[in-house]
Write a structure and sequence with these properties.
The protein is of the alpha+beta class. 42% of the residues lie in helices and 21% in strands. The strands form 4 sheets. An 8-stranded mixed β-sheet has the order 9-8-4-10-11-14-13-12, with helices on both faces. Strands 3-15-16 form a 3-stranded antiparallel β-sheet. β6 and β7 form a beta hairpin. The longest helix has 25 residues. The two termini are 46 Å apart. 37% of the residues are buried.
Length: 446
Amino acid sequence: MTNCTLNRKVKKRSIHINFDGGDVSGIGGVELLRAADDRLGLCKAASRLLPDPRDRTAITHQWEALFRQRVYGIAAGFADLNDHQQLRHDASLQSAVGILEPMGSAPTLCRMEAVASQLSPPEARKMVFRMHELILQQFIDSHDRPPKSLILDFDGTDDRVYGEQEGRSFSSHYGGYAFLPLYVYCGNHLLVSYLRPVNRTDSYHSAAVLSLLVKGLRTHWPKVNIVFRGDAGFYRPLLLSWCERHDVRYIIGYRSNEVLLRECQTTINTLENSWHWLDHHDVELPSIKHFLDIDYRAGSWRQARRVVAKVERNGIGANQRFIVTDLPGDADQLYSQVYCERGTMENRHKELQMGLFADRTSCSAWWSNQLRVMFSSLAYVLWQSVRQVGLVGTALAKAQVWTLRQRLISIGAVVLRNTRRIELRLSSASLEKSNFLLALRRLQAT
């Protein structure tokens, strides 16, 4: 490799730069992901769900190793297949994957992703369903005792696309071509990553997904109280009726209408008068608000249901929001503390799509893009295990994936390998030495 000599010196010593350092890795902490994966058995089980169509007599790379390489690469911050043209030679990642030679190239990984598009639709759906079963099972296994209550947060978010992907549609709302994946979380745990076309409603297939989740959860925890939470896009009368028949509580956004506005009119007038009085006396407030309980029956409902209204007056004007729910509690607490808590999902979306690249759906085939979403989802599950098990009680227990990646994965390492051992000599200047070692010990503990 050609040397580069800088035009400066340090204490009379000239500075030379080259790439002849040998097995030196920039992601020496990637073994932490392998420890989390071994604890969960996630990639090993998931790789078996994607059929290996290769000729057994001409195999160079093991299927499970390719699967781990892709998932660990995403978790470590490498979104694109092209990254693996050089990354395949990284000794730390090779050790984490479980091999000693160069890993799969970008074309090899691309052919692995293309396998999903070669399956028949029933086979592809079954594969994705089984992968979601794995994710649900690890969520169940993460509990030492049955929980009393679970809140399932449903949300869809845009996944912009710029090619000729199968199933893409134009959305005037999002201002371009996109998909509309459905994500389901329980707290910080990801349960569902389901790719959908954008030309359907937010609630598309949400009832079927909810039914499968409830069945899976109550198979293990028959007495658990389950709450469905979603914005107004997930409101459907049939969904409310299904929840009531299956003992599932709900708290869902509800769109405004003339009847509800009439119910709120007295409160709206009172807040308007109060706002003008405060403004006249130079009292500055960001807003004033009041919450109402309304016993309401829509034309499509068989019985009246509880609607909670938030009536607010701020500097812009009056603002009314509504939710429909069968949860007990006062209106203020239900709206402000229970319903609005779903806003924390935005952080999970950012982690999944920006931090773990679930929006890199650039394959031409639909099921290959769904597989990419699953790769990112599996990477999310690994990081959640690192947080929940390895980092509990530390300053990094609630850190997002890009912070964790910077502090715990992007560590310089010299990798020494001989016939008896592999030694990773991590940088002595690492900022999180104690947290890294603590997390590794915890994840490896049985």
